[in-house]
Specification:
about 260 residues; mainly alpha; Four Helix Bundle (Hemerythrin (Met), subunit A); 2 domains; two-stranded antiparallel sheet; 8 helices; 2 strands; about 75% helix; Hemerythrin-like; Hemerythrin-like domain-containing protein
């Protein structure tokens, strides 16, 4: 029954987003559209758009803020997608902090921490499930995803040697995000919907819980030399975690208030 409540909630959430989109579109674009004969001649209702630069820019702005997706449904999909969104949020804060070296360092550290934990968490929990339940297709998808992760791990490792506030640091971080975006999109749109269909609702909830738990015990820094296939990944991750967590005590991060403010 809890699954039905959750599914209904997600549908309601999408409907609210859709209504918000319609309302904002009407307000933002009303000055660019002209309604002709709408009430006098209902059968001849039509819109004559004045497609100037403002209307196109307003449309793009609204669409970027109000994303209505075909929600497949699944706790695992939501858990992974939430992580992806956090990555983008932290990077956006890094960009907005240009000129403030201290703030950029904090957001870069937070970004690296999130990406490293997320990547290893997927390798520990999600990719083995794909291989188990999706056969040869799952193995191919998992191998491709691990390859993507390896590229990002290598780039993150390079980032740690660069100084925040420099063009080299900013360029490399942008390169990392550019690598992540198509990978994340592929997971949300192809990999995870296939896995969700194979493991079912309860399996999705169990996998999401396991994914979230595992992230608490994996490295918080990039370890490109660590093996990325189980069971060695689990051992390497757990062995590296204590050292990394000790290092984190001496590393700058955004405050909890700062993180909460950008999520609201």
């Amino acid at each position: 029954m809890s699954w039905l409540y959750w599914s209904a909630y997600k549908r309601l959430e999408d409907y609210i987003k859709l209504l918000s989109l319609i309302a904002v579109m009407y307000i933002r674009l009303s000055s660019s559209f002209r309604l002709s004969g709408a009430f006098a001649q209902p059968s001849r209702l039509y819109l004559k758009p004045s497609l100037n630069k403002f209307s196109l820019r307003a449309f793009a702005t609204v669409m970027s803020k109000y994303q209505i997706t075909n929600h497949v449904g699944g706790a695992l999909i939501d858990a992974v997608a939430d992580d992806h969104q956090e990555m983008y949020t932290y990077y956006d804060q890094y960009v907005k902090s240009t000129g403030d070296v201290d703030a950029q360092e904090r957001w870069a550290n937070q970004f690296t921490w999130e990406v490293a934990r997320h990547a290893v968490g997927e390798e520990l929990v999600i990719y083995p499930l794909m291989e188990k339940h999706l056969g040869e297709k799952g193995k191919q998808l998992a191998d491709n995803d691990r390859s993507d992760h390896q590229e990002v791990k290598n780039l993150l490792y390079q980032l740690e040697s660069l100084k925040p506030g420099t063009s080299q640091h900013a360029d490399l971080l942008k390169n990392i995000v550019d690598h992540l975006k198509p990978h994340n999109d592929s997971e949300e749109q192809e990999d995870l919907p296939l896995l969700q269909k194979a493991i079912g609702e309860q399996g999705s909830q169990d996998a999401a819980a396991s994914f979230k738990r595992t992230k608490k015990f994996v490295p918080t820094r990039s370890h490109p030399s660590a093996p990325d296939q189980p069971p060695f990944e689990t051992l390497a991750g757990l062995m590296a975690a204590p050292i990394d967590k000790l290092k984190d005590m001496f590393t700058k991060f955004p405050t909890e208030e700062q993180k909460a403010s950008v999520k609201n």
